[in-house]
Amino acid sequence: MSAGRSMVPARVPSPPVAGAPAASEPRLPAGLRTVLVHDWLTGMRGGEKVLEALAELFPEAPIYTLVHRRGSVTPAIESHPIRVSWLGRLPSAARYYRRLLPLYPSAMAAMRLPAADLVLSSSHAAAKAVRKPAGATHVVYCHTPMRYLWDLYPDYFGPGRAGLATRAVMHWVKEPLRHWDVATARGVDHWLANSANVRERIRRLYGRESTVLHPFVDLTRFTPASPEVGERGWSSRRWLVVSALVPYKRIELAIAAAARSKQGLDIVGTGPEAARLRRIAAESGADVRFRGWLDEAALAQAYREAAVCLLPGEEDFGIAPLEAMAAGRPVVAFGRGGALETVVPGETGLFFTDPDPEALAAAIARASEIDWDPARIRARAETFSRARFLSRARELLAGYLASR
Fold it and tell me: Across residues 323-351, what is the average pLDDT?
């Protein structure tokens, strides 16, 4: 169904059924009409987990999105009324939505929201561009500005990354899309950034200030291994990467480091880079297993049994390191971006500073010599709890609404 004016936005029940605040915490106004907006619903990645938590605060709120593939997100999200743009009605849109980037502006411009007091967008692409209804407060939780239009444009659309036709199209639409991205940022009333790293990008690209609200890790899903598993030696464990297979993740560095060190590597995730990474692994002779996306239990077990979780690229924030730490496993991460806000060197992991396989392999070798304390690693993850996230989100949103 396309977005339409007839949709009645949610009114927060009194008292709320889900996400209820403690007696001492700020409460959202009774009768608050809320609409949620998200870029697309095609899988459960970090952004969708944040959306799921935000939706807990507004259990009746409709969710407006560009594209929705049914069954690809959790029942908690799909219990909400979901309204899809005209883009989502195109044939195979849920599969090829990334290729429809030039159509995002017109799809967002055509999206009509119902009357509302609060529009809360979860955005790393187009959601922040939605037109708010008259009188509404628009708050954007920004996972990142559109990385493939700005800092990482060559990684997505440079030679060897995209076909000739795609590069030609993007040559013509890149600047209009950038203009649209900046112009629509002016319609946002308040910005929440998922990290200090993203806060600086928002300031640099949009000229707007934002408040950092770190995402959370599900501490009930990811737990340390039993003592018996924990006693297994480092050499008997495989390295682990949990990631969408997209260019900026730099997963080829992990493959090359595994080949250099003759160490087994498991890669959990899917994405457009899968075929290229499989070729790289085959040509390198590395012992790499591509495991696709795993269900919750299998993913938790993969973390518990790994020697180390690798983060070879610069992340906006990066939830995988926190999941690894919740499972008591150390992290070796590229020393830039969001990892600087989660990994504590020598306590929960190590950094490498040069983006090359030799530096990554050397950092992992150093990590193998450290007697890591799973309980101490877990304690760091516990500072990024879901309860903390919801409490802070409620506090910030209540403040924004009170200042209207």
Answer: 96
What is the per-residue pLDDT for 14?
Answer: 37
Mean pLDDT over each residue of the chain, to the nearest integer: 90
Average pLDDT for residues 179-188, to the nearest whole number?
96
Q: Is 295 left (phi over 0), alpha (psi -120 to 50) or beta?
A: beta
| 214 vs 18, more confident | 214
Instruction: Say if pTM beats, i.e. exceeds, 0.70.
Output: yes
Q: Which of 1, 54, 2, 22 is nearest to 386 (CA)?
A: 54
pLDDT score at 31: 87
Q: Let me know how long the chain is.
A: 404
Q: Are 380 and 348 in contact (CB under 8 A)?
A: yes
Q: What is the pLDDT of residue 3?
A: 41
What's the confidence (pLDDT) of residue 22? Answer: 58
Q: What is the DSSP string of 165-212?
A: HHHHHHHHHHHHHHHHHHHHHTT-SEEEESSHHHHHHHHHHH----EE
Domains and CATH numbers, the chain: 10-216+385-402 (3.40.50.2000), 227-384 (3.40.50.2000)
**120, β-bridge pairs:** 36, 139
Q: What is the CA radius of gyration of the chain?
A: 21
d(CA 64, CA 130): 9
Which residues are 159's β-sheet partners? 162
User: What phi and psi, each to the nearest 5 degrees, are found at residue 273?
Assistant: -90, 0
**Strands lying side by side in the sheet with 265-268:** 288-292, 265-268, 239-242, 308-311, 331-334, 349-352
Is 50 exceeded by the pLDDT of residue 212? yes
Question: DSSP string covering 64-123, please?
Answer: EEEEE-TTSS-HHHHTS-EEE-GGGGSTTHHHHGGGGGGGHHHHHHT--PPS-SEEEEEE
Q: Where residue 2 falls among pLDDT bands split at 50, 70, 90?
A: very low
How many angstroms separate the CA atoms of 347 and 331, rounded? 10
Half-sphere exposure of 40 (CA within 13 A, CB side): 22
Contact 37, 86 (CB under 8 A): no
DSSP at 41: E
Residue 389: which of 148, 187, 213, 212 has the closest Cα?
213
User: Percent helix, strand and coil across the chain, each rounded to 5?
Assistant: 40, 15, 40
Q: Angle between the 386-402 and 46-57 helix axes, to the nearest 10 degrees?
A: 60
Name which of 71-85, 141-155, 223-237 the model is least confident about.
Answer: 223-237
